[in-house]
Amino acid sequence: MSFTTIILERTNYVDALMFQENFFNAQLEKKAKDEKTSNTLILLQHTPVYTLGKSGDESNLKVPIEETGAEFYKTKRGGDITFHGPGQLVVYPIFDVETYGMSVRAFVEKLEQCVIDCIAEYGLKGSRISDASGVWLDAENGNARKICAVGLKVSRGITMHGLAFNINTDLSYFDHIVPCGLADKSVTSLEKELGKEMDFFEVQNKLIDQFEKHFS
């Protein structure tokens, strides 16, 4: 099953949300009419914003939002609070998981695997934590660091929202929150782990290649 890839310029959260909702709702309409659905992969960077998942705790934003230099929005995705901003690759797959014959859990694991395989090309070993979504480094010890967050909304098998992969992200924004509600774990980026600013678009292309491998 193929998909269409759309790469946007830096986009504020509300505009990006409306953009993906148009694709999401169109696929829901096709499902309701028993028509064939299509899959779309949207990639972008956001202007600085904190988003809170539907089951998140607003107290995980530790300071008044006006002190952060970012916007704040409550969303309908899963997960708690996270940050999006320049240098972070945000990927929104508007996919029909039924066309791949997989469960939502298996779909999330495929998303995570795309990132795990991507960072492996840079010599980093990513893995999962049983009680937390996303991709982690050193997940087995006391120095677990999240390099990619995952949070989805799924309706009738159609997905929206997605993953946020820290490439050259300004990690100081995470100091203002309890990332994903996990106080005992930290956040990292490719830039921090490798000690140099990364070619963002090279990494983006490598991740797209992984999506083509895992969702072909």
Question: What would you say this structure looks like, in words?
Answer:
The structure is a single chain. The chain has 216 residues and is of the alpha/beta class. The chain has one domain: Bira Bifunctional Protein, Domain 2 (BirA Bifunctional Protein, domain 2, 2-Layer Sandwich). Helices cover 26% and strands 28% of the residues. It is built from 4 helices and 11 strands. Strands 1, 2, 6, 7, 8, 9, 10 and 11 form an 8-stranded mixed β-sheet that branches. The protein has a 3-stranded mixed β-sheet with strand order 4-3-5, with no helix packed on it. A hairpin with a 7-residue loop joins β8 (132-137) and β9. α2 packs across α4.
Per DSSP E runs of 2 or more residues, the count of β-strands stands at 11
Give the low-pLDDT segments. none
Give the averaged pLDDT, no decimals: 93
Proportion of residues in helical segments: 25-40%
User: What is the CATH top level name?
Assistant: Alpha Beta
Shape: globular
Structural class: alpha/beta
- What is the CATH-assigned architecture? 2-Layer Sandwich
Helix-strand string: EHEEEEEHEEEEEHH
CATH level 3 topology = BirA Bifunctional Protein, domain 2
Supply the CATH superfamily name: Bira Bifunctional Protein, Domain 2
How many domain regions?
1
> Helical segment tally?
4
Radius of gyration: 16 Å
How many strands, which pairing sense, and closed or not: the largest β-sheet?
A: 8 strands, mixed
| Amino-to-carboxy terminus distance | 5 Å
Instruction: Tell me what portion of residues adopts beta-strand conformation.
Output: 25-35%
